[in-house]
Amino acid sequence: MPPSSVVPRLVNIRLHPIKSLDPVSVPEARIAPSGSLALDRAWALYSVDGKWVNGKRTPAIHLIRAAYSPDVRSVTLSVPGDRRGMPTRTFAFPEAHEDAAEWFSVYFEQQIIVRYSANGFPDDTLAHGPTIVSTASLQAVSEWFPPTPKGFPGISLDEARLRFRATLEIDADPSSGNGEKLPAFWEDQLFGPDERSVVRFRIGDVHFEGSNPCARCPVPPRNPLTGENLDGFQKRFNQLRESTLPPWSPRDRFDHFYRLSTNTRVAPSETGKSLHLGDPLTIM
To answer: Among residues 238, 243, 233, which one has the least CA distance to residue 256?
Structure first.
C-alpha cells in the first residue's frame, strides 16, 4: 500500500456543466440526489435522432469554448477563429438550455436539442458519483507523452486534466508525512479486487463507495482545444499503464489497461452535503 503517513486532500473540483465542453473549477460543490455533483453534466446535447452530440461522436465540439461565471449561473459560448463568424453568446445556466439549443444548431448546421437534468448525465450509468484522480497520476501520464523532434509539444499537466475530465483531484497534504508525496495511481486502492467488493471512504463529510477503474473513451487521444488526434495514444497508454501498475492496484479489475481514475457511488443519505477544497480523504 502507499505510505500511510500521507494524508490526501481535495485540491481540485472541476465541474463540466455542459457535457463534453470545458470545465470550471469551483471551491465547493454539493451532492445531487443522483450522487453526482450538482451542475455537473447538467446539459447534454442531442441530435434529432436521439443520439448524443459529444466528443466521442463529434470532434468539432472541441472547438467550442464555454466560460462560466464564478457562481456558474451563466455560460458564454464562443468558437474562436470560426470562419463563419459564430457569435459569442451568454446564456443563463442552467435554465436557458432551449435558447442555447438555437446557438448549437447554427454551429453544427443541424437541429440540436439541449436537455437539462438536475441529476446530470453521468458517463457511468451504474456508478453515478464523481470520478477521482490524483495529481500524481495525471503528472505521470503527461510524462508518458513528452515533446518530440517532429514538433509534438508534449502533454502538460493541465492538458492531461482537460483530456481525462475527472471531477475530483487529490494530492498530498504538504503538512503531513514528512514531505512524502502521494504516489501515482494512489486512487487505485479506492476500488476492491472484484465487482462485489466495496471500498468505503470519506472526503470531508461525504461518504463514498469506490466502484471501478474508469474505462476511457476516444476523447483523451484528442487535443482538448482542437480535436486533433494523437496517433498511438491509446496503445502507448495501455502499455505504460500495465507496466507501471502499482502493487496496491487490483490487477483483476483491469480487463484492459486503458483506464484512469476511480468511479464512485454515493448513497442518497449524502444528498445535499458539500465538498470543499482542502477536505481530507479517509479510507474507512
So the answer is: 238
